[in-house]
Design goal:
CATH topology of the largest domain in chain B: MetI-like fold
Strand content of chain A: under 5%
Structural class of chain A: mainly alpha
CATH architecture of the largest domain in chain B: Orthogonal Bundle
Number of strands of chain B: 3
Number of helices of chain A: 14
Number of domains of chain A: 1
Order of helices and strands of chain B: EHEEHHHHHHHHHHHHH
Number of helices of chain B: 14
Oligomer: heterodimer
Strand content of chain B: under 5%
Strand order of the largest sheet of chain B: 2-3
CATH superfamily of the largest domain in chain B: MetI-like
Helix content of chain A: over 70%
CATH class of chain A: Mainly Alpha
Shape of chain A: globular
Radius of gyration of chain B: 24 Å
Chain lengths: 274, 287
């Protein structure tokens, strides 16, 4: 089918593009405005430009610099959760791929079944569990649940299934032990899949609101996503220009990550989802 | 040949299983246990299935399903329709890669941030549309009201997910053999007819899967209504998930909230189960 340049296809596409891009544009132009300019509701960036002076400095100065904590926390939760979680999922996926064992089918169904259990059915009992252990309002209360990536195990099985049996057989003939097969041969072969999962997990943990909302009460342990909803004045009204800057800074790392993800994402993942 | 070795398999599985048991299995079981108790503050007493009786007959709880139902029956079909149209556009347009990236971008936004942004964009104080409406003679436009809230949420969620949906549909379209369309065109069909009579029916499976995924998401929706609830007062049972949170943390009725959570999980589980059986077949887990 010949690809077309015709206008009648581009017009709706451009309209959609405007719809999808508008909030990004609004966000960008609003970061340049202080509160007075925001209340004017224009489509253009503010003049004079308040990006650095009121907004960037302001958000970092908010409540004695807690924003820097939020930034650090988001990275910490997301990096540790995605790397370790993906590694655990890769180990599990390898087991399903490589071995026949007692309970294999049952265990797989069990794992996927629990994956369907929504976050808040487990969050409340987890809250009680951590509370009894005195771990509520600690970093671990957020990190530990983030390590379990059930959808990741599913994806890992898909990725591992793509490795041909011959590869393992050849390694076995060469006398490699099982963990060595996993580490030296298996992992390098699924690098694209591994990376994709790390990126997906990173985004999911970065954006996870409910878990920290339930587990944390000290502002200095909040991730960005939770922190920016607390950018309020003493009376409890949101400070608009700082909120906007906070939203912007929360989104930027993800958008940067997305340019990496773009290359890995399309064919494999959508195929796996099917 | 796949090796038979239970010991080695579990050695690889162990790290994952330990955390899985800790974070999923034990909480569900422990939660089930806790839900058999009534509770006020630190005091707990045995009520057996009392909590569940309350939940299942609680009009507030089931009333909360109104919004997910709205999303499921209005937003999701609309999104699937737009997704199909957009996927077909991707197929036809040169340089569709640019559009694909742009439409996918909202997926990168956290739901909370998206909700916040749209809330500001539609707010009385900051909306750039307000001066626009003034120009049309509308005096005091108020986009976000209690009645309009579901529609605002519809816009937000459409914005977030349509691009992602369209990509999944597009990848399905790509797997349709070209011969089908070419044959039809040789027989004189227009592009629209080809799209409507040949391609769309072949998307049915993917559409079904997407519908189920979205159903699960709609039933659990929390973030977007919650953030809008910071700007406009919501009823405490606006969605089931919000009701559960409020029961636990505003009213302190923890065990009751856990019971509600498990009922909601059961509803979702039943729906997921059918999808689950399909996946295990495709993944060679029978072998």
């Amino acid at each position: 089918m010949k690809l077309t340049r015709s206008l009648k296809y581009h017009v709706p596409s451009i309209l959609f593009a405007i719809f999808f891009l508008f909030p990004f544009y609004w966000l960008l132009e609003s970061t340049t405005k202080d509160n007075t300019q925001l209340l004017q509701g224009t489509f253009t960036p503010g003049i004079p430009n308040h990006f650095i002076h009121d907004n960037l400095i302001g958000i970092f100065a908010f409540k004695n610099g807690v924003f820097a904590n939020w930034l650090f926390n988001s990275f910490m939760y997301a990096v540790s959760g995605s790397l370790i979680g993906t590694f655990l999922a890769a180990l599990a996926g390898f087991a399903f791929r490589r071995y026949q064992f007692f309970g294999r089918k049952f265990l797989f169904v069990l794992i996927l079944g629990f994956a369907m259990v929504p976050g808040f059915a487990t969050a409340l009992p987890l809250f009680v569990m951590f509370k009894n252990l005195g771990m509520i309002d600690s970093y671990w209360a957020v990190i530990i649940p983030s390590l379990v990536n059930v959808f990741g195990v599913y994806l890992m099985v898909v990725y591992w299934n793509q490795i041909p049996e011959e590869m393992f057989d050849a390694a076995m003939i060469d006398g490699a032990g099982d963990f060595r097969i996993f580490w030296r041969i298996g992992l390098p072969s699924i690098v694209p899949g591994f990376t994709t999962l790390v990126l997906l997990s990173f985004v999911a943990i970065w954006n996870n609101y409910f878990l920290p909302l339930v587990m944390l009460s000290s502002s200095d342990k909040f991730p960005l996503i939770l922190g920016i909803t607390t950018v309020t004045s003493l009376q409890g009204f949101p400070v608009y220009n700082l909120s906007v800057m906070g939203a912007f800074l929360t989104s930027v790392p993800l958008l940067i990550l997305f340019s990496f993800m773009q290359r890995f994402l399309s064919p494999q993942l959508t195929g796996a989802i099917k | 040949m796949r090796k038979t070795s239970t010991l080695k398999a579990y050695a690889f599985l162990a790290p994952f299983l330990v955390f899985f048991a800790l974070v999923f299995v034990y909480p569900v079981l422990f939660g089930g246990y806790l839900s058999l108790f009534g509770q006020r503050g630190a005091r707990m007493w045995w009520v057996g299935l009392g909590n569940y009786a309350t939940v299942l007959t609680d009009p507030q709880f089931w009333g909360g399903f109104g919004l997910p139902a709205f999303l499921l029956f209005v937003q999701v079909p609309l999104m699937l329709l737009l997704g199909i149209i957009i996927a077909l556009l991707y197929e036809r347009i040169k340089h569709s890669r640019v559009y694909r990236l742009i439409f996918y971008l909202p997926y990168a936004m956290p739901g909370i941030v998206a909700g916040l942004l749209w809330a500001y964009i539609f707010s009385k104080s900051m909306s750039p549309f307000v001066p626009l409406m003034h120009a049309f003679g509308v005096k005091n436009p108020n986009f976000i009201t209690y009645p309009s809230l579901p529609w605002i949420l519809l816009i937000i969620i459409l914005w977030e997910w349509t691009g992602y949906t369209s990509l999944i549909l597009y990848s399905t379209l790509l797997s349709i053999p070209k011969e089908y369309a070419e044959q039809a065109q040789l027989d004189g069909a227009t592009h629209t007819q080809v799209a409507y009579y040949i391609k769309v029916p072949l998307l049915k499976n993917t559409v079904l899967v997407l519908f189920i995924f979205n159903a699960i998401g709609a039933l659990q929706v929390f973030n977007e209504p919650w953030i809008l609830g910071q700007l406009i007062t919501l009823s405490p049972n606006y969605t089931p998930a919000i009701y559960i949170y409020n029961e636990a943390f505003s009213y302190g009725a923890f065990t009751h909230a856990i019971a509600m959570g498990l009922v909601l999980a059961a509803v979702i589980f039943v729906i997921s189960f059918f999808f689950l059986r399909r996946s295990t077949k495709e993944l060679n887990i029978h072998a």
